[in-house]
Amino acid sequence: MPVGANPKREREFRKLDKDFKQEGRYRGREEEVAARIVNKQRAQAGETLVPRAGKPTGKGGAPELPIDGYQHLTVAQICGKLEGLSAADLKRLRTYEMAHKKRKGVLQALGA
Fold first, then answer.
1. Do residues 73 and 40 share a domain?
2. What is the pLDDT of residues 28-41, one digit of tens each?
3. 99-107 long-range contacts, CB within 8 A, separation 24+
4. Phi and psi for 50 in degrees, rounded to 5?
5. 60: number of CA atoms within 13 Å, CB side?
6. Which domain holds residue 5?
7. Same domain, 44 and 85
8. What distance in Å separates the CA atoms of residue 72 and residue 97, rounded to the nearest whole number?
9. What is the mean pLDDT of the chain?
10. Looking at residue 56, what is its pLDDT?
11. Residue 15 located in a structural domain
């Protein structure tokens, strides 16, 4: 596991590695696949330390967005919070959504 992974992610990595070996999946690549899965989870949860170049970041290297907890909201929740945002904020959300989840309902609400 990479430096900076918390104990929960370490446990997940060890469990995945053990399960893959017992099941005979990914022969010879069990550790690599387990690490990739855990690293993807860390990145999605904003736990990685390296911010993307040129983008303002918040806690844990996650992008600074005008809606708190945006990454974890549903389409309906996001649409309910768009009113009153500036054109620049809407553009930032549209750019983030296009680069990440690409949810059709959110993109329509953002005018993409």
1. no
2. 999 999 999 998 88
3. 100/71, 103/75, 105/75, 105/79, 106/75, 106/78, 106/79
4. -95, 110
5. 12
6. 1-51
7. no
8. 12
9. 84
10. 54
11. yes
